[in-house]
Design brief:
By secondary structure, this protein is an all-alpha fold. It is built from 10 helices and no strands.
Length: about 190
Amino acid sequence: MSFDREDVLEKAMLAFWKSGYETTSISDLTAAMGVTAPSLYAAFGNKQQLFLEAMHRYAGDRVTLEKTMADAPTAREAVAAMLRGAAMLYTGDATPPGCLLASAAATGSPEAAAVRAAVAAERRAVRDIIMRRIEVDIVKGLMPSDTRPDTLADLTLAVTQGMSVLARDGADRARLLAVAETATTGWRTCDV
């Protein structure tokens, strides 16, 4: 069977996003993707490999995130923009509410350990990008020298994941945007 790999990967991503890794069955995936199980296995290997590809599609290119963060005037503005983007994504009309990474993280079986590890690695990579951007502002004197980049990066991830939970619980875009705008207001900056 011939199919557009990117199209079916998008459909798989949405299925995982809606239901999480463990609760999305192969039959759920084949129905969502419009392919047979043998075609799925031939193209993607197994459910875990399909999820990992879908997760990378969802997360996007880390180089792009790093550039977007670097191009922002300040780390605070970079993180605020990232949080606004998350609010928009988590409440999209064509996507399930919340975050694919948050829904996958709820997995608990030993068979899903590799998925949990991959999701955690993705979040650590984002955390590292945020920390490096904050460190730039400290070096430039835009933030106090005693600023904790690790704590601010952790706070950003906690807010992001919390926004995902709120979206899954029915919070609308305006409510998430308000959270996004409030999240960085307490960041200490230096007058330059």
